[in-house]
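To whoever is covering the structure queue this week,

Two jobs came back overnight. Logging them here so there's a record in the thread.

Job A:
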Amino acid sequence: MVLPFLVLYMTKHFDYSEADAGLVLAVYGIGALITAPTIGKISDKVGSFKIMKASLFLTGFMFFIYTFISSYYLILGFTFLLAVINEAFRPANLSLISEVVTPAQRRTAFALNRLAINLGMSIGPVVGGLLTLINFSIIFYVDGITSLIAALFLVTSKWKKIEEPEDSSVLIGNGEGKHLGALRDKNLVFFLLALIPVAMVFFQHMSTMPLFLVQDLGFSPATYGALTIVNTGLIILIEVPLNNYLSTWSDKKNLTIGATLTAIGFGGMAFAHDILFLIITIVIWTFGEMIVFPASAAYVSEIAPVKKRGEYMGFFQMSFSISFMVGPWLGTLILENFGSFSLWTAAFAFCVVSAIMMQNLNTKTADT
């Protein structure tokens, strides 16, 4: 609820410039970027469940404190600290999911996790927007309260860890992986390099896609908002049963198909001129998204040694932070200097690169 309105909070509530407000968001992004692998490694030592509870409790209180800070430089420093604490939840969350479900259930479990995130991101900004009409500070209090409620829910929840042999997640032919640091594992590094191009393209849906619809095709911003319902609606209704159906397919197969569908969907927008064609392209890349991202988390949990899952998930999460930082910037650069056809052609090419690399991933078991 807070992050979508942080820039408006800085400009409307404090009357800071747009550049100053943008720097606050950038500082948050930097904090999130460096937190993921560090916290992931810590969660391996102290336990992912403890990290999740601590993150939610501290984040809740920090949201309350945020409303009492007015100095710009204090806001920058506190925002960085908030990012470190708040974003600590993500790699620990992914690691915990890997611990409490069987390997066969992981892809569906990660899809269910994405469903929860999308539901939250559908409801939070709507409620937050209404609350800002009363007072901007209220969104911090409400978000803080929901964080504390979530923490209390975890405290009272019971869960059972699936016992696995220490080397059960190490790939065949990479038995020494359990003794290496995450970035010394060639399987993880190769996969992250394969994932980043398609993730960069995916983030075009919230950066260059609205510009393309409004500036190039002449649609209203409201039309873009309506089209996003196609994406979120499909995710809410289909993603979990889809991944349950695909659970017998190998991660390599799912990742390759998902990246290919993303290539076709975003690349197809180079030829889009009407609403119907746009909807078709959105449906295609949404299916790509619904397949590739749960399979990505499942693959990382597969290649990660049991005692290093948090660290591996941290670098996995960091790949999305890098993609979010670079993708929208590069996309707008291409759109501004070379036009929309070049943008969507480049998006197609990036996803094809990901698909080819994912087809060459090392997997623990034979493909099915």
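Job B:
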Amino acid sequence: MHEHLVIGFTGWEGDTLYNRDGNRDMVAACVDKIEELKANGYSSLVDPCPNDLGRNIDVMGETAARTGFNIMFAVGVYDEKYAGAYWKDKLATDPDAAAYLTEMYVREIEDGVGSTGLRPAVIKVACGPGPFPRHEQVAMEAAAAASVATGTPILTHTEGVDGDLQLDYLTSRGIPAHRVIVGHCCGNSDHDYHSRICDAGAYIGFDRFGLEKVHPDSERTASLAAMVNAGYTPHIIVSHDCVFNLRGQMGSKERVAAAHTRSPLHFERTIAPRLRELGVSQSAIDSMLTDNPRAYFEGVTPEQAKRQMAQGHSIGS
């Protein structure tokens, strides 16, 4: 539910020491990862890369065509901290920036990206810690307007805090809470924070497993088990925020190498066994991997999903 085929922080093109992998090499790397996922029973992946973070529609399209795998992607702009100069200036100086972004989002969703015909499945919202600057408020306003206009759900980036403020902003603009995944909630271990977002009706992302330097997996796993034991399973989606191709050499060589070696099967291979040791059932794990993503895309509320599962019905039946 939250992995990336390609990421490139704005400005990587100017790094003349970087050995530029072409689309063919990037597709090959993606195909390797996707085939591994397929061999383990997976058939779909969401890549919520915003437009200005290296989103590569051609790589996504070719990878999907070569593997028969369902790749869903996003439209959106990144947070103010990491946005490039183009969007920083546009959102800071254009009084009609929200309308401009809304038009761009709706056009992609309805007509596809450029001549590819490929259309986004989610709208990406990205915010740093609050209070949110104008850049992020404009982007949220546009995301909400485009979501209302098209019915497309929203998936967010946070720094592990203030996702409740993000959700308040979006719902105040007409977005039902269950159409939102508040991302990276596993970036802290505050059970009240997690519960507050779920109680408001949204989905939450425990979607950075394996990013130990950001927050240790031991704490993510304990927090996730606590949420499951408190009855919040239908609200939770799990993932890794893996990057299959990182453009440039942002940070140290070790950081770049670590990014490329992370696996989208880490949850299944390492985290799920730990959760079972903590008393989490296999059915709860399956729900977080399969049922909850399906409910989110079908527009089913977590509470509706909980009732359906209690009655022995699958989502959508």
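Note for Job B: The first helix runs from residue 23 to 39.

Please reply-all if you pick these up so we don't duplicate work.
Q.
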